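Entry 14: structure prediction run for Gar1/Naf1 family protein. Input pasted below.
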Amino acid sequence: MKRLGTTHHFVQKKLIVRGEPSTGERKEEIPKINSVVVDQKKAGIGRVFDVFGPADRPYIIVKPYRNVDASVYLGKKLYFEERGFGGRNRKD
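Run finished. Output tokens:
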């Protein structure tokens, strides 16, 4: 589980997350499209839909799963796991 960033906006049923800043000795990894997004308790929230902005601190769009109330995650830190497509445990 790797830190994704902090959720800043909820727009058109998608979460906008600001990525963690990269520092000299700690370089944050940019998530791949379709990476699984989870909260600190590892509960599935959705998947990475798109990544844009500067490489050192990108914005990440997260498409929540249908049964998730994504608005409760505003201002919260989220994490991601890069799993294969076979590792899904929820429907998009």
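Notes: Residues 85-89 have pLDDT under 50 and may be disordered. Will compare against the previous run tomorrow.
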